């Protein structure tokens, strides 16, 4: 499986510098947000969340191919 494409990535620092929030539009899924203890941590969390959602969507299509139509 190819990694999901994340567009319009935004990263902000929250909670007085103790938390970072990454938001982005995931192709085929929609807007998602994830938090982490650092800039890189938040971006990795968003990427992991996006990959999880894409895998769930692919699994649903495999289980019931007519549902996607």
Tell me briefly what this model is:
By secondary structure, this protein is an alpha+beta fold.
Strands, helices and their partners?
Layout: E1 6-14, E2 19-26, E3 30-36, H1 39-63
Antiparallel strand pairs: 1-2, 2-3
Describe the 3D structure.
- The protein is of the alpha+beta class and 69 residues long.
- It has one domain (6-61).
- The chain has one helix spanning 39-63, and strands spanning 6-14, 19-26, 30-36.
- The chain starts with 5 loop residues before the first strand and ends in a 6-residue tail after the last helix.
Instruction: Give the strand order of the largest sheet, numbering strands 1, 2, ... along the chain.
Output: 1-2-3
Give the strand tally.
3
Instruction: Determine Rg (CA atoms, Å).
Output: 14 Å
How many domains? The number is: 1
Mean pLDDT rating: 86
| Element-level helix/strand string | EEEH
What is the percentage of strand-forming residues? 25-35%
Q: Name the shape in a single word.
A: elongated
Total helical segments: 1
Low-confidence stretches: none
Calculate the terminal CA-CA distance, rounded to whole Å.
22 Å
- Structural class call reads alpha+beta
Share in helix: 25-40%
Main beta-sheet strand count, sense and barrel state = 3 strands, antiparallel
